[in-house]
Amino acid sequence: MTPDQMRDAPLLELFRLEAEEQVNVLNAGLLVLERDPTDAGQLEACMRAAHSLKGAARIVGLDDGVNVAHVMEDLLVAGQTGLLRIQPDHIDALLQGSDALLRIGQAGLSSAQQAQLTEQVNSVVARLQALFGAAVPSLAQAPQPAVSKPVAPAVEPEAQVADELSETAQDASHEPATDARGRVLRVSAERLDHLLDMSGKSLVEFQRIKPLSESLARLKRLHATTKRSLDALREATLASSLDVQAQALLSESRGLLSECQQMLLQHVEAFDEFAWQGGQRTQALYDAALTSRMRPFADVLSGQARLVRDLGRSLGKQVRLDIEGESTQVDRDVLERLESPLTHLLRNAVDHGIESPEQRINAGKAAEGMISLRARHHAGMLVLELRDDGGGVDLEQLKESIHARKLSTAETIAQLSEEELLAFLFLPGFSMRDKVTEVSGRGVGLDAVMHEIRQLRGSVRMQQNNGQGSLFVIEVPLTLSVVRSLVIEIGSEAYAIPLAHIEYMLRLEQEQIVQLEGRQHFWHENRHVGLIAASQLLQKSAGRVEQDGIPVVLINDREMLYGLTVERFIGERTLVVMPLDPRLGKVRDVSAGALLDDGTPVLILDIEDLCSSIGKLLGSGNLQRVDSRDKQAGGRARKRVLVVDDSLTVRELERKLLLSRGYEVAVAVDGMDGWNVLRAESFDLLITDIDMPRMDGIELVSLVRRDSRMQSLPVMVVSYKDREEDRQRGLDAGADYYLAKASFHDEALLDAVQVLIGDAQE
User: What does DSSP assign to residue 631?
Assistant: First the structure.
């Protein structure tokens, strides 16, 4: 290019756009031709794409582009006319040519980069000419037409070039020129985001008109009541001796009230019509702004089929990518952030999943492996299913890798389910490859996928069928601009949790909560789930909890499940996401803000950050009780009892007996656990066994009596040892009551508790 042409950025930008469009056509068509070299439609499409690029490069003055496109066109025309049959070597060379054309359209190359590009172009042209000459020697000897320089027009060169480029593109696609309604305008992402933000705020602000409409309806009813009262007053005064002036004033008041009633009715009707029309229009405006951000899923697939094909060839495998749902609409930001995890999964499928042609044939499969990618909408989410028909995951090899990396013991690994084993593949740094290659072995694939998907407020799960292949299912929101959330109350303030991270919602009765090793748990679907007070996580003062059970939200983080106790479920809402002011920096446990329908601000919680905070809180051991000092209807606190016993059966029996009498009960699994619980919380009674691991009951009672805060705590020992010396030993340690389990029965325990601390409530 000449210096003048180098400075002509608008023309180069036009060529770059043209090159991106036509190279996509070339790549897609060439991959089809590799499977079916006789596909006339794809041969025609690829030839016209190369022809269009040759014309565009000639107009802009890119000689390298003209040379590459010209020899590509010759080879494709030979394929069309039957002079040669397109082979994989031809496809490789043509794909290299399309890559070179894409690079030629880049602006701002340094001298060294330009020299490197020219060398690449010459190499590609030489390879294409060699392949063409080997297949069609007679035509290869024919003189090639010289590339002529375009004659620069005297008036408006950019407009003429733009028209010619546009005509070239239309000629390549065999489509008529679209009318004005189909034109595409380039708008900056910042302006589009601002438009969506303003339309979202307008929608939320317009919702505030609803309370005003309800107030007008109440005013209308009040006005009607006032008129009826005035009419009744007039009827009551007809028989009375009111003077003429009072009668006139009463009649005038009735007339004015009737006139006000007519005006009010008209205004209410007009306001209702305005509210309905305005609501429809603000919703339509927001929907239109949101739709303008939506792009077909195919936009993220550009180059993926080529990636699968090239990677497969480099590994000596035959692989094809089949795509379904390319027109599925997704938010632009979501698409951009999906590209990296999709690339990881596709590379993983080619490298780890698909076998070599020999292995596939021996297994009774086709030599060519198949990777299918399906995109669809479901319940406001984008669901991606990536499946391969490869060998699946060798679970025995996976177990060996887990053991070799000392991630678990051999005994534990042997008991893990398939789902639990597959979860190890998503751990940071985990890989089943012993050697690092250019493709894999560093352990950053599936971990990076999990991280990126969770950043999108989505989820990913894996299934496999040994010998038949693997399936990855990804669910992400269709847009990051709005989020379906559960709005809850924590510390008397509203917060939102994205529904994608919520496993379950429930209400717990106090009897369902048990305490193990200093932590509160409950059973959910045969799993122990730890309870954490959301108010403690967010450093808020706990508010009043609803009387009909403790509201709990189960959130998931990888394979961990946590139960967050909140004060109230406000309800499910679709929230317009409003980013926080960047001057605030990263706010712990919070991702963004939003407004409820009534204008109330709400913070959207960052679940990944929240789970990290939960881990730190659990590590500190300073957990607050989620049901501490629960109040009954009369406002009196129930007395609390700590049961310490290493026998699960005994613990549960004593706990249920005490609960049946209205006491609040916590349990500990041994003396050490009981001592930790006693130091963290306050109790009205301690019931302990004697023979326990780590710390026995005698040691526990001795520690209690030496602690100044617990010297007055009543202590009952319940033990199988019923000899007099054992009884005396317990009483000497400081116990107030000794009950032998051999003579233990329900009433004996409850009577003893009654003697020591009285009724459950006072």
Answer: B
Integer Cα distance of 573 and 65 in angstroms: 54
Nearest to 206 by CA among 278, 289, 285: 278
pLDDT in tens, 90-124: 888 888 888 888 888 776 667 777 777 888 888 88
Strand positions, DSSP E, 577-707: 590-595, 601-605, 640-644, 664-668, 685-688
Closest CA to 413 of 394, 400, 428: 400
Cα separation, 213 vs 217, in Å, equals 6
- The residue type found at 37 is P
Helix count (H) and strand count (E) of the chain?
25, 23
Q: Which residues contact 435 (CB under 8 A, 6 or more apart)?
A: 441
Distance CA 198, CA 282 (A): 11
**DSSP string computed for 510-575:** GGG-EEETTEEEEEETTEEEEEEEHHHHTT----PPPSSSEEEEEEEETTEEEEEE-SEEEEEEEE
Tens-digit pLDDT profile for residues 12-29 = 777 878 888 888 888 888
Q: Six-digit token pair at 537?
A: 């996580």
Q: Quick check: helix, strand or coil at residue 487?
A: strand
* 625 vs 50, residue with greater confidence: 50
- 74 CB-near residues (< 8 Å, 6+ apart): 132, 139
Three-point CA angle 24, 28, 33, nearest 5°:
140
Per-residue pLDDT at 173 exceeds 50: no
**Is residue 273 classed as helix, strand or coil in its secondary structure?**
helix
**pLDDT digit string, tens, across residues 74-85:** 888 888 888 888
SS3 at position 759: coil
Task: Taking residues 257-266, report their average pLDDT.
Answer: 85
- What's 351's DSSP letter? I
What tokens were used for 464?
A: 């496999």
Cα end-to-end span (Å), the chain: 95
C-alpha closest to that of 727 among 754, 698, 707, 751: 698
What per-residue confidence (pLDDT) applies to 233?
A: 79
Sign of CA dihedral 233, 238, 240, 245: positive
Closest listed residue to residue 626, CA positions, set 536, 715, 742: 536
**CA 489 to chain CA mean position, Å:** 22
Tokens of 61: 């003055």
Q: How far apart are CA 340 and CA 347, in angstroms?
A: 11
Whether residue 367 contacts residue 454, with contact meaning beta carbons closer than 8 Å, is answered with no
pLDDT band at 642 (very low <50, low <70, confident <90, very high): very high
**Do 298 and 327 touch, CB atoms closer than 8 A?**
yes
Q: Which residues pair with 119 in a beta bridge?
A: none
How confident is residue 487, by pLDDT bands cut at 50, 70 and 90?
very high
Nearest to 14 by CA among 135, 183, 161, 140: 161
Tokens of 597: 């329908």
CA–CA separation, 317 and 360 (whole Å): 10
CA-nearest of 73, 78, 74, 94 to 30 is 94
- How do residues 320-379 score in pLDDT, each as one tens digit? 888 899 888 888 888 888 888 898 899 888 988 899 999 999 989 999 999 999 999 887
